[in-house]
């Protein structure tokens, strides 16, 4: 349930002093593999870095109501991450590249994450394609991490614009972000999107025709309790230079709480997105509870969203799982109400589904 990275990349810790959480023999083996891959790719620069090959292979047998069974890949990926010695006492360079992989056809998919930056006791700064604060600190906390299969509902933040999960805070390119070190339990995130200018039909630059945005967020950790808050805004396509009207002008804010005591995990979030062009709000909240003993666990999640002048959407997900080292076998059921099941064109556009999943991480 808990996030693994300030920028949404597997293998990183939320604590910036330990973003690359790899050590010992495991790191050595992976580093050797990564260097072999780097050599095959004829990229000599990587050979001088402390690089780690990582990935997650995921398959799921889904049976959706009134549909045939479907063996699906759900989010398999492979990547390289690492650090580079900059010759500075307190600062190291960091990099990450992660690519989607489809196990049903063996082909690479879209690029998931990619960034380059630096980290030290002063914090972490990166630029590239990454997640922002409203997702890391709020949106993602109720995901079902045992299977990695998400079946909940999210508010729409620039839906239909091609962003991951209809959210303009996930895997956003042209992003620059800074995450502070944790001080007295507090961590802060500041990020921006700098997309430059689009081109007109004549091929000349048009200012304010591409999406630009910013993100602010923070979290506070006190023993087993984590509280999060974040705000983001995004604009694109100025349609009237005098009035300052935009084709896209939206903001999103949210609050979250997480608590973990031994095998018990609890989480809750509230989010609200506003489309300032249409003056329509989308509000939603999610709840999560899970319990695990010796790798055996069960999870229950509930999420709901309400768009102005529309019916409320609801989703309930239950899952049981067994963790075996770096592997997970899971089985679950997702139930949608009619408003969610019939919401064509959204991430919730599916009917009630039973699934059995298998995931291997390395």
Automatic annotation (TrEMBL):
Main location group: membrane
Keyword Transport: yes
Pfam families according to UniProt: Porin_4 (PF13609)
Compartment(s): Cell outer membrane
GO biological process, one term: monoatomic ion transport
Topological type in the membrane: Multi-pass membrane protein
Domain of life the protein comes from: Bacteria
Keyword presence, RNA-binding: no
CDD domains: gram_neg_porins (cd00342)
Domain Porin stretches: 34-278
Gene3D superfamilies: Porin
Gene Ontology molecular function terms on file: porin activity
One CC-aspect GO term: pore complex
Keywords carried by this UniProt record: Cell outer membrane, Ion transport, Membrane, Porin, Signal, Transmembrane, Transmembrane beta strand, Transport
Alphabetized InterPro entries for the sequence: Gram-neg_bact_OMP, Gram_neg_porin_domain, Porin_dom_sf
PANTHER family in alphabetical order: MAJOR OUTER MEMBRANE PROTEIN P.IA, PROTEIN YDDL-RELATED
Subunit (UniProt): Homotrimer.
Name of protein: Porin
Species of the source: Nitrincola tapanii
């Amino acid at each position: 349930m808990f996030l693994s990275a300030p920028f949404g990349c597997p293998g990183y810790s939320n604590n910036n002093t330990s973003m690359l959480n790899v050590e010992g023999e495991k790191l050595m083996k992976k580093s050797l593999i990564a260097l072999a891959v780097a050599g095959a790719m004829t990229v000599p620069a990587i050979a001088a870095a402390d690089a780690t090959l990582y990935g997650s292979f995921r398959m799921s047998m889904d049976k959706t109501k009134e549909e045939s069974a479907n063996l699906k890949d759900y989010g398999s990926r492979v990547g390289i991450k690492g650090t580079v010695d900059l010759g500075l006492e307190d600062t190291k360079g960091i990099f990450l590249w992660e690519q989607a992989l489809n196990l049903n056809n063996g082909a690479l998919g879209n690029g998931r994450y990619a960034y380059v930056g630096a980290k030290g006791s002063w914090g972490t700064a990166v630029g590239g394609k990454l997640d922002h604060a409203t997702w890391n600190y709020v949106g993602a906390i109720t995901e079902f991490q045992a299977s990695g299969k998400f079946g909940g509902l999210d508010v729409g933040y620039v839906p239909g614009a091609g962003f991951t999960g209809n959210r303009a805070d996930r895997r956003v390119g042209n992003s620059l972000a800074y995450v502070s070190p944790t001080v007295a339990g507090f961590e802060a995130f500041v990020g921006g999107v700098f997309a430059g200018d689009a081109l007109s039909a004549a091929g000349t630059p048009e200012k304010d025709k591409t999406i630009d945005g910013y993100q602010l967020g923070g979290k506070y950790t006190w023993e087993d309790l984590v509280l999060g808050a974040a705000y983001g805004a995004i604009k694109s396509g100025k349609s009237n230079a005098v009035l300052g009207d935009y084709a896209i002008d939206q903001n999103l804010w949210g609050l979250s709480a997480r608590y973990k005591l031994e095998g018990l995990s609890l989480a809750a979030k509230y989010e609200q997105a506003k489309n300032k062009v249409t003056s329509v709000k989308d509000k939603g909240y999610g709840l999560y509870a899970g319990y695990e003993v010796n790798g055996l666990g069960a999870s229950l999640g509930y999420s709901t969203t309400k768009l102005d002048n529309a019916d409320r959407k609801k989703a309930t997900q239950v899952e049981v799982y067994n963790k075996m080292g770096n592997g997970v076998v899971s089985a679950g059921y997702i139930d949608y109400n009619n408003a969610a099941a019939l919401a064509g064109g959204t991430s919730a556009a599916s009917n009630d589904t039973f699934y059995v999943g298998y995931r291997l991480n390395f």
